[in-house]
């Protein structure tokens, strides 16, 4: 799976936080899955994007500004299928938790 670097503002600290994440491409932008390895809590980077959806990503050495959009409904299920097709471990992560795993698309900032 491809990997990007996400730089988002910490929801508690207000400081920039950087993390490397696997993603699946979509027509709207890269999609991220907040599986947190199947843990019962969302990963910190997902909490950060909920609090401040504006962020930066680096793909292939190029930085760009993005805005996070959390998915639901049919779009959520379609993107989830992309994750499980790319790597079956995502299905195991989803089964390991009772929470809804957040799926986030990083769209170009306007």
How would you summarize what this structure contains?
The protein has helices at 44-51, 73-86, 89-95, and strands at residues 3-9, 16-22, 24-25, 30-33, 54-59, 62-70, 103-108.
CATH top level assignment: Mainly Beta
The profile of the biggest β sheet is: 7 strands, antiparallel
Strand order across the largest sheet: 2-1-5-6-7-4-3
Total count of domains: 1
CATH fold type: Pnp Oxidase, Chain A
The average pLDDT score comes to 95
Number of helices: 3
CATH architecture: Roll
Helical content band: 25-40%
Query: What would you give as the CATH superfamily?
Result: Electron Transport, Fmn-binding Protein, Chain A
State the shape: globular
β-strand number: 7
Report the span from N to C terminus: 27 Å
Strand content: 35-45%
Cα Rg: 13 Å
Uncertain stretches: none
Which class do the helix and strand fractions yield? Answer: alpha+beta
Order of helices and strands: EEEEHEEHHE
Explain the overall architecture.
By secondary structure, the chain is α+β, with helices and mostly antiparallel strands. The chain has one domain (3-108): Electron Transport, Fmn-binding Protein, Chain A (Pnp Oxidase, Chain A), CATH 2.30.110.10. Helix content is 26%, strand content 37%. It contains three helices and seven strands. A seven-stranded antiparallel β-sheet has the order 2-1-5-6-7-4-3, sandwiched between helices. A hairpin with a 6-residue loop joins strand 1 (3-9) and strand 2. The radius of gyration is 13 Å and the shape is globular. The N and C termini lie far apart (27 Å).
């Amino acid at each position: 799976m491809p990997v990007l670097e996400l730089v988002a503002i910490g929801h508690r600290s207000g400081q920039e936080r950087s993390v490397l994440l696997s993603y699946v491409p979509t027509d709207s932008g890269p999609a991220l899955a907040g599986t947190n390895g199947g843990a019962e809590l969302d990963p910190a980077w997902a909490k950060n994007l909920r609090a401040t959806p504006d962020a930066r990503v680096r793909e292939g050495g190029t930085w760009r500004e993005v805005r996070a959009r959390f998915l639901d409904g049919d779009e959520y299920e379609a993107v989830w299928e992309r994750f499980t097709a790319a790597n079956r471990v995502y299905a195991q992560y989803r089964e390991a938790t009772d929470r809804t795993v957040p799926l986030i698309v990083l769209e170009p900032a306007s």
